[in-house]
Every structure is written in C-alpha cells, then in structure tokens.
Amino acid sequence: MSNRAMTEDRELVAQILNGDMEAFKLLIKSNERLVAHMVGRLIPDHHDREELCQDVFLKVYQKLSSFNFASKLSTWIATIAYRQSVNYLKKKRIPLKRTHIDDLEGDHKDYFVEHDTPESAFSSYHTREFLDQVIDQLPAHYKAVLTLYHLDEMSCSEISEITDMPEGTVKNYLFRARKLLKNELSKYIRKEEIL
Amino acid sequence: MKSLSDKEIQDKLDAGEKLAANQSEGRLYKEVYNHLNKMPEFELSPSFADSVVGKVEELQTSKRRSKDNLFLILSTAGIFLVSIILMVILGVQMKWNSLSYLWENKLMVLFGIVVIVAIQFADRSLVRYRPNR
Asked: What is the pLDDT of residue A114?
C-alpha cells in the first residue's frame, strides 16, 4: 500500500471520527461501487440489496474507531461487505454452496460464435443473459472471488484477506469458476448452433 | 500449433497477453472475461450516501436520547432513594391522611394529568416530528 494512499485513509478516518459527516459521505461515495458489486453479486433478492449496502456502511461507521490501518481502507470495507453478505445468506438459509460445480472436468469441444451480424448480436445478448444465470448459480465464495478479482481489480492476496481464505484456495476458486463458466458457455453455444 | 491448457490460457489473459487467433478455447475465455469485467445490473440510488448519513445521524440522536432517558430515570430513582434514606435517618413519620387533599381535588389532579399527556403528545407529534421516519 502506497504511503500517499495510507495518509489519505488516515486523514479521512480522523475527520470522520471527529464527527465530520461530509468526510463520511466522501468515504461512502468512493467505496459504494465496491460494496454494490459484492452485494449485487451475492444477494439474490433485489429488494434487500440497497438496505444491506446501507447496513454495511453503518457497520463501517460504528467500527471505524477499531480500524488499525493494517490494510487499505477499501480492503477493510470489502471485508465487512463480504461478511455482511454471507451472514445475510446464512440468516435467510440460502445455501452458500449450490451448483453443479463438480462437473468441472467435462469434455467440451471448441465452438465459438463471431458477432458480426445482427443475428449474432442478438445471440450475444442471450449469451450475456446465460452467463449471468450461470454466475448466479455459483457458490457465494466463487462469486465473491470473481467479483473482487474482475470488477474491483484486487489481487489474490487482498481477496484472501477479505474472505479469510488461503491464497491458494482463492486462486483455485478463481480458476475453477472461470473454467466452469467457459465450459457452460461452450455447451450453451453448441446447443444454440444445433437449434 | 499446440493448444494451450485452461491454466495457461487463464494465466495469459490475467497477464494481459494476447492469444493466437486460432485458440477457440481462448475466445470462449475472452467472452467470459469480458462478461466478468462488466458491472452487474444492480446500482445504488443517487441519494444513497445521503440516506446512510441520515441513518447514522438518526442513530446518534436516538443513542443520545436513550442516554438522556437513562440519566432521567437514574436521577429520579436516586432522588427517591436519598429521600427514603433521609426519612429513615431523620425519623420522619408519614401522615397518609395528608394525601386526602388529592382525593378531595381529584378533578384538578385529573386535569393536570391530561395537560401533561397533551404536552407530551404535542411534543412528539409536532416538535420532534420527522416525516421520513
């Protein structure tokens, strides 16, 4: 973590702890996308997402005095967002692991559709929808790892810190999830071509 | 040309390297990567930060209010306790028939209670009223 970023984090936290609500608003605005990515990917119920994001930032405010700057402020906030989301899923009895993830080692041939025509653009739209559905079916830990790596551009060590999983497990989940998505996409395109 | 394994393709894409055009698995992976790098549909409302700050302020106010209430309860209990102790120490004898004054003027007492309740109600519903709650 760079010294400049660390100093900025320290200044912001000090201002918030002194009761500066504008500084807290700044913290929310600079981290709301990060929290929205995590909650948006992990929480299936659209109505609960915004409220859960609010709860994340309320928790951030309440716990801010205990933040010890051992990591980036954004990493710490992502940790709270991840834990709040997992707690929500547990509370709602939504299984954290539910998918045909064990079918990872399937044998798929090479198919690909080029998107040069309006028909293929239409097909591309359906491909995106299909991929969204497959991602939704992934276990929560896989979704969290994918979101933090691809959307929030975090390193595997940062993800390991946030999710409290060993770095090797993070790398393994990342690899398996992307391979599963690729295999499912391959199957889907093959099926579309047959139809 | 030797086809790359899944691990090799993912490593290349993570490193931002280009894949050979004939890598069909690679193109599938690119599609997956492009999709993963896009924002999910969910977006927070534009007034999100304001509503969180509003909630924080509300929490602080209610915390302060409960602190005030606790202080009020404890001080009342304290005064009551000190009064009893003083009465015991000083040997004060209560004459309960002196309270008969209240019974004789029960309408006035009732009126007083109604006024207090009305003031409390007006305070909560008009003075401290918050439309967003």
From this structure: 43
Nearest to B28 among A25, A57, A185 (CB): A185
pTM of the model: 0.71
C-alpha of A158 from chain center: 13
DSSP-derived 3-state class of residue A34: helix
Residue A120, CB half-sphere, CA atoms under 13 Å: how many? 6
Mean pLDDT, chain B, rounded, equals: 86
Using a CB–CB cutoff of 8 Å, tell me whether A21 touches chain B: yes
Residues of B in contact with A64 (CB under 8 A): none
Q: For chain B, where are the alpha helices, taking DSSP H only?
A: 6-14, 24-36, 48-90, 100-104, 106-122
Question: Does any CB of chain A come closer than 8 Å to the CB of residue B33?
Answer: yes
Confidence (pLDDT) at B97: 76
Q: For residue A170, which amino acid is it?
A: V
% of chain A at pLDDT higher than 70: 83
The chain-wide mean pLDDT, for chain A, equals: 83
Instruction: Write out the H or E segment, with its range, that includes residue A85.
Output: helix A73-91
